[in-house]
């Protein structure tokens, strides 16, 4: 947070974008949340978030040893193989991006990884180069609740970008993130630091594991109006609590079937 000319007597939670201008003391216990403009959010109930049973698996990934090693080996093997096999597709995608809207080819958004480490999450650029500046002007069209930002038929998306998104080709550069250890094939989707400030307790849980290209939320969220943020939290926490190699495999299969079936992504993960 950024309190100005104030004395803070804890415990006090101060959001990252909070500004205290009164100059008086801030006495806890108190919470000064970020001033984030969002669509309406249904009240959050802990029983909704933590309703998933704690299923223990013989392949559990929790505080594990050998299983963490196996997961990392799988990530390395699959990402390296996929990059090699899909390199012609990625080359064609890069050429298409340049022909349609020039350089740069890639967009590296700053996200938080495991333990809060900042890294660049890479994608093929699917939005116009001034997309970030236009986002503020289009804020009133946001259809997501919580800190997410998504517009139906987003005018910032390029012609080629729409096609790349339809088949999730824009996500392929994240295989590099997996190869170098920033991400895993499966895990909570990586979020910017500003979004993670929105729910501190949930943030610590989801940042305890590597973020993923796909995850439980991507295959289970219903995206009901007003409940999308709750489901996002619920499924991220459920994954951290019940993660296993078997669950990772199921998520990968469901993701592949969704892409093959022509399921277009709907939501804030398909950005730029």
Would you give an account of this structure?
There is one protein chain. With 272 residues, the protein is of the alpha/beta class. Helices cover 40% and strands 12% of the residues. It contains 10 helices and 10 strands. The strands form 5 sheets. It has a two-stranded parallel sheet with strand order 1-4. A two-stranded parallel ribbon has the order 2-5. Strand 7 and strand 8 (118-124) form a beta hairpin. It is globular, with a radius of gyration of 20 Å. The two termini are 28 Å apart. The relative contact order is 0.16.
Summed up, what is this model?
With 272 residues, the protein is of the alpha/beta class.
Mind sketching the topology for me?
Layout: E1 2-3, E2 8-9, E3 12-14, E4 19-20, E5 26-27, E6 30-32, H1 46-49, H2 66-101, E7 106-112, E8 118-124, H3 131-137, H4 159-166, H5 174-180, E9 184-186, H6 193-196, H7 200-206, E10 212-214, H8 216-220, H9 228-242, H10 245-260
Parallel strand pairs: 1-4, 2-5, 3-6, 9-10
Antiparallel strand pairs: 7-8
**Terminus-to-terminus distance:** 28 Å
Average pLDDT metric: 78
Q: What is the rounded Rg?
A: 20 Å
Summarize the main sheet. Answer: 2 strands, parallel
Q: Extract low-pLDDT stretches.
A: 51-60, 266-272
- The percent of residues in helical segments reads 40-55%
User: What general outline do the C-alpha atoms trace?
Assistant: globular
Tally the beta strands: 10
Main sheet: strand order? 1-4
The proportion of strand residues reads 5-15%
The class by helix and strand makeup works out as alpha/beta
Number of helices: 10
The H/E string reads EEEEEEHHEEHHHEHHEHHH
């Amino acid at each position: 947070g950024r309190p100005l000319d104030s004395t803070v007597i804890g415990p006090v939670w101060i959001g990252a974008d909070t500004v205290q201008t009164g100059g008086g003391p801030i006495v806890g216990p108190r919470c000064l949340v970020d001033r984030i403009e969002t669509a309406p959010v249904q009240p959050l109930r802990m029983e909704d978030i933590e309703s998933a049973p704690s299923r223990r698996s013989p392949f559990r990934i929790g505080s594990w040893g050998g299983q963490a090693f196996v997961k990392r080996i799988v990530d390395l093997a699959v990402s390296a193989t996929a990059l090699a096999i899909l390199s012609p597709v990625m080359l064609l995608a890069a050429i298409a991006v340049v022909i349609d809207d020039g350089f740069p080819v890639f967009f590296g958004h700053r996200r938080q990884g495991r333990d809060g480490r900042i890294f660049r999450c890479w994608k093929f650029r699917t939005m116009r180069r001034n997309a970030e500046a236009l986002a503020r002007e289009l804020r009133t069209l946001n259809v997501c609740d919580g800190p997410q930002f998504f517009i139906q038929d987003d005018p910032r998306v390029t012609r080629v970008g729409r096609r790349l998104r339809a088949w999730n080709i824009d996500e392929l550069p994240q295989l590099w993130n997996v190869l170098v250890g920033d991400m895993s094939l499966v895990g909570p989707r990586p979020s910017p630091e500003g979004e993670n400030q929105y729910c501190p307790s949930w943030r610590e849980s989801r940042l305890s594991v590597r973020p993923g290209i796909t995850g439980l939320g991507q295959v289970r969220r219903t995206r009901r109006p007003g409940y999308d943020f709750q489901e996002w939290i619920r499924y991220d926490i459920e994954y951290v609590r019940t993660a296993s190699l078997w669950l990772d495999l199921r998520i990968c299969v469901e993701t592949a079937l969704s892409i093959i079936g022509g399921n277009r992504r709907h939501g804030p993960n398909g950005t730029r």
